[in-house]
Amino acid sequence: MLIGIGIGIIIGTSVMFMSDRQQALSKAKVEEKAREYGMIYRDEVKVIFDKDVKK
């Protein structure tokens, strides 16, 4: 049973290393993806909070 687990681990790690899953994303692409998921910048919000107003 241990031999089967060991062989499975070896095969699994070799498959992981053979697949090319690393993609280099530029900052613009990362921001584009984040905006698709709903990211906004703080200065884009037009709501005034009481804590932000100096009295």
Summed up:
The chain is mainly alpha-helical.
How does this structure look, described?
Helix content is 49%, strand content 0%. The chain is elongated and about 70 Å long. It has 55 residues and is mainly alpha-helical. The mean pLDDT is 82.
Helices and strands in order, then pairings?
Layout lengths: L1 H17 L8 H10 L19
Index terms:
single chain; 55 residues; mainly alpha; elongated
Shape: elongated
Proportion of β residues?
under 5%
Distance between the termini: 73 Å
Number of strands: 0
Poorly predicted regions: none
- Overall helicity: 40-55%
Count of helical segments? Answer: 2
Query: What structural class should be given to the helix and strand makeup?
Result: mainly alpha
How would you sum up the major sheet?
Answer: none
Radius of gyration: 24 Å
